[in-house]
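Example A, followed by Example B.
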Amino acid sequence: MHDLPHLAARLYGTPLLVARAKLDVILGALGPRLAGQAISFDSDAVPSAEMAVTPDGIAIVPVIGTLVARSGYLGAASGLTAYSDIAESIEAAATDPGIRAILLDVDSSGGEVGGLFDLVDHIQAIRAQCGKPIWAVADEAALSAAYAIACTADRLYVTQTGELGSVGVVAIHVDESAADAQAGRAWSFIHAGAAKVDGNPHQPLSDSARATLQADVDALYGKFTALVAERRRLSPEAVRATEAGVYRGDQAVAAGLADKVGTLRVALADLGAVLARTSISHPIAARKEVPMSEPQGDIPITAAAPQQPTTQANADLEQRLRAEYSEISAISAQAARLGVAIDPAEAMAKGIRPEALRRTVLDQLASRSDAADLVAAAPAGATPKAETESPIVRRARDAAARHGG
């Protein structure tokens, strides 16, 4: 029972981005706790939240269960997924040179507001820095907060019976004053600040408390609808016209909330085909594609077929290109932290070498007053120059000169 106040505080009197049906389930589960009854979670029913990687380099990142800012010790037992865990998985996939694309496997009815929009911004920043495609599939639900995450993808799939949408915000207030009176309990609040005890469950919701909570809900709703409108290329009016409705399969595509009806297997096949075409048009070696069976429960990832290069030269070229792309991605990430935008995929497509890219960043930063903050990968032992020049910039320039002249 010691965790009950924490659970209640995360559910009542605060805006939530969760579908109504899921909210009913949560309230039904928490109700017995409020009445002093014990409840248990079926851990066997909780799906795995581990990231998987297909043989052709697609990372499958799960976005499953009720989404919260922090899951804590309850996460594994109750099916909670923390936004921070999703961010870490996506970031790990984006920075892994062996991973070429990311697919979000979404099956969630939403969750908390706290941390959601920060995660969305982080996903978009990661995409801009790594240049890897990020797709998503709703299998079987991407609702409310989960849809906010799914719609950040470059392409969004939904299964035939999958549910999308519920673009809305809800807040709950439970008035227990009548039950308190029947139990012979009377609550007195000694407080400073008129709004300090607004929305507490032992008093009816006051007009001022209701207005404050409604204003918060409205502001978050505006932020949510603006996000969906931008990512799905819809007008804000069209998003609001959904009235937080839930759309299945073809209906979701017709409403502009998804791009295609298809399973996880279909999305993987389509994404693999795009990567294969990209590998032909860009100087990045592709992994051999391996057919995948329709997932049943856990996703069966077939073993990677051994790749047999025709010559040793091909193998050497592949290794060099992978190392080169990894170095360019690292330079891009460093440059982004200093406000210099670089597209790694475009740099590779144009045949720009890492040393040339590093020189470009240095040239742009040389005119700025914050050039001393530059972090550039360069071997130690560079020859010192003028005492007034930053040692970090000096080492980077020496490294660029040795590699590219």
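Example B, a separate protein, is given below in the same form.
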Amino acid sequence: MTLKTILLGACSALAFAGLASAETLTIATVNNGDMIRMQKLTDDFTSKNPGIELEWVTLEENVLRQKVTTDIATKGGQFDIMTIGTYEVPIWAKQGWLLPLDNLGADYDVDDLLPAIRSGLTGEDGKLYAAPFYGESSMVMYRKDLMEKAGLTMPDAPTWEFIADAARKMTDKSNEVYGICLRGKAGWGENMAFLTATANAFGARWFDEKWTPQFDQPEWKNALEFYVKLLNEAGPPGASSNGFNENLALFQTGKCGMWIDATVAASFVTNPKESKVADKVGFALAPDTGLGKRGNWLWAWNLAIPAGTQKQEAAEKFVSWATSKAYLDLVASKEGWANVPPGTRTSLYENPEYQKAAPFAKMTLDSINAADPKNPAVKPVPYVGVQFVAIPEFQGLGTAVGQQFSAALAGQVTVDQALQSAQQLTTREMTKAGYIK
């Protein structure tokens, strides 16, 4: 055997070994527009990282939460990267379920992350445990043409009283135009995200300082009665089945006068390729009732690496790519600046090109900065979180209460019955968990 043959054989073996060692990252994500767009752009990542392949598990929001929570709590090891929210990050980091993101690369610029968003993703040890893919608050998106037709002018900072009056005046059921679209689909991150933030503005809270549930208090009754009555009079039929994606579709097809929801929706409702009303949309802060708190939440969808992965280095490379400044530039080059994932980086809001392309930029940033997770309610509370309560039990509690409130909206139970059930089930669970002595 010649030396040349030996060398060629060795090279072939090395090449084969290289192919065999290609790593596949399994990524669990939510079926929101920005994540779908990311999947279409991942050739940019795989071309720069030829040894890494990607496998996507794309799920509806409630299903995603259930799957990733089960997997991480049982150490299932099904996923190498998970899309999780601001609620899960500090709780899971404390449990030791997430790896700290120590190696995002020299040019990642972690200090460019918006302080309000970054603080929710930082563990007690000061380390980042998830990287924000997009950040959001909530705000009013409305049809300027319908507002004008109703003889009204939307203030920058409306009250709920104004919103309700406008919704009724904008409703034209014979033409399938409804004054307001709001989340009704049960889920702690669906209807309860909206209702918890709204209840804050009405002076309600989940718990008092001693962790006693507060659904038997008049503030919750006022909030829930207001919501049910408003949607029954000025909302679309079947509102109890509508979550973020369903209301987005209704708004884009011209069936909603107003929609109060995530600021991230702004780029979709103003995109002429996707929205029939793109040139008619205005924005305002989430409403208040004059008590000093607006109904705007604070959230980020983030990429995190479960402690059970065997592929930490490859996973960190992907997380860094998908949440970097360079990724924002990539989306801008393909889809335009208005469509980059919002709410994560200071530099984006200082970018004149983005300011020019995104009429919603200032309102988004103002809404994010106005949210106060440490003081979410009018009265003192023992928890952190605007549209959620940052305790492990909230995922189950929020969904159970959300089912009661969705049933009230559908007319299956009364508001009083829904609140009574919410009070009972929450008291039972909090007692069992040891919060109530």
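On Example B: Residues 3-20 form the longest helix (18 residues).
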